[in-house]
Every structure is written in structure tokens, then in C-alpha cells.
């Protein structure tokens, strides 16, 4: 009889982005009733847009030995949600009925993808790279090439020639 697949302990899978990813997969695995790896693998081939995933890949995903590709992770998520009677695009954290909270309106799929990206990159969610702010346009495409990008005091007009040269520096 095959051994029941469990969430790996902290000694086998230390805290970090991969553990957070695997823990989220295990949430859906438990909601689905801990189906056999064979039944999950078989169901991935019967999806509307099939992405066959082997039993070994599923085992390695659920034990944190791989993060695989997003297409395979998404196929496993869709099967686990289907077996658990859940929608993978439902809101991950349901709102309380008496208040409206938009703290994190991510769906289960969006949240898992965020964790997957963190696991692939090997960064903690708090350390994940943010979208860089747009740089001011000065020079290059559409900007004024005569204004250096790193000089905030520069102007596009040349200064008028001085009639006298003072002894004091201009700053």
C-alpha cells in the first residue's frame, strides 16, 4: 500500500519561498481529499486544455523537490480544485460578510503563481522585486538629448555669456 503523501517537515524543506509554495499546493491537495498521484496525473491529461503531468512530477511538486513549469503547476492546481469542487479563480481569502476588504483580492491561481515565481527566483515574498518606478524622460527616445539625465539643474538652453567673470564660484 502506498504511503500517504504529507507536507514535508521543516528539516526536509526549510522555511523559505519553496516551502510557502509547497504549503499552498498542499492546501488544495487537502481540499481535494488527498487524491492519489495516479488519479491527479490521469486527470491532467483529461483537462479542457490538457497538460499531462507525470506522477513523479506531481510527487516532486508536493514534496518541494521541484517547482516545475507554470503550465504543469497550473494543470495540477486545476485538477486539485476540480476534485475538491473548488474554482481555481475564486478569491483566495474570502471576505467577511460584514465588511469589504481589498487587502489582497488575489485568486487562488494568482496567489499560487506569485508563490511559484518567488520559489523560482528563490526570494522571500517580502524581498520580491517590485516594478521599478518610471525614469524621467531626458535624452534618448523622445527626450531632449542636450540635457544630461543625471543633472536635475540642467536646462535645455545654454546660459547667456557673462560680461564679467566674478571671483565667486557659481554654487
Average pLDDT, all residues:
79
Describe the sheet with the most strands. none
Kindly state the number of beta strands: 0
Strand content: under 5%
Low-confidence stretches: none
Order of helices and strands: HHHHH
With helices defined by DSSP (H or I, 4 residues minimum), what is the helix count? 5
Helix-strand makeup class: mainly alpha
**Straight-line distance between termini:** 82 Å
Work out the helicity level: 25-40%
What is the 3D form? elongated
Radius of gyration: 27 Å
Describe this structure in words.
With 171 residues, this protein is mainly alpha-helical. The chain has a domain at 17-95 and 102-127. The protein is 35% helix and 0% strand. The chain contains 5 helices and no strands. The chain has helices spanning 17-31, 37-44, 55-63, 70-83, 108-121. Helix 1 (17-31) packs antiparallel against helix 5 (108-121).
